[in-house]
Amino acid sequence: MGFGDLKSAAGLRVLNDFLADKSYIEGYVPSQADIAVFEAIAGPPPADLFHALRWYNHIKSYEKQKASLPGVKKALGKYGPADVEDTTGAAADSKDDDDIDLFGSDDEEESEEAKKLREERLAQYESKKSKKPAVVAKSSILLDVKPWDDETDMAKLEECVRSIQADGLVWGSSKLVPVGYGIKKLQIQCVVEDDKVGTDMLEERITAFEDYVQSMDVAAFNKI
């Protein structure tokens, strides 16, 4: 298990493939597992590794709260796909984790041999992954769009919302829901591709119709 060297292009590609159908390194919420992997990366992954870049930017937003995230940090080699060998502790398998020196090998020849083995394993993994179709992460979102008052033309408001078009965005069913004093809000469903459309973009585009829209809220958000 492992990602290999996350400071290398090969390691980042393994991470990108691993995150193709996952939001986080472990589980369904950000945790210390994400922080451990995040801190092993030198910087933002390149744009073509969009799964890894999406995850990197998301975890970066938790920088001030990282100490409070759930879980306990484990060795980096404890995370990642099972069919990539962890080489982070290969020089000291017989020692306790606290005694491992990742950079202190006295045998340079052995270190080069381990490096070659790791690169071969990563190449095999990438070759196998490249033959599998990428999984597109999608979410179903239910939006509440509120008008200014009971005189707002709700048919026109919905027309404005549905006029918003973007790659990775599909509008679904809708209905008007009473909120009081004769005012009704528009409740509308949409399905988005996570890498292409976010709630921030939807809110910015919808509230731009300021003649009709007072505010927009996310009523429900579910991964598909």
UniProtKB/TrEMBL annotation:
SMART domains: EF-1_beta_acid, EF1_GNE. This is Elongation factor 1-beta. One of its GO terms (molecular function) is guanyl-nucleotide exchange factor activity. The lineage of its organism: Eukaryota, Metazoa, Chordata, Craniata, Vertebrata. It comes from Erithacus rubecula (European robin). Keywords: Elongation factor, Protein biosynthesis. Residues 84-114 are annotated as: Disordered. Catalytic subunit of the guanine nucleotide exchange factor (GEF) (eEF1B subcomplex) of the eukaryotic elongation factor 1 complex (eEF1). Stimulates the exchange of GDP for GTP on elongation factor 1A (eEF1A), probably by displacing GDP from the nucleotide binding pocket in eEF1A. GO terms for cellular component: cytosol; eukaryotic translation elongation factor 1 complex.
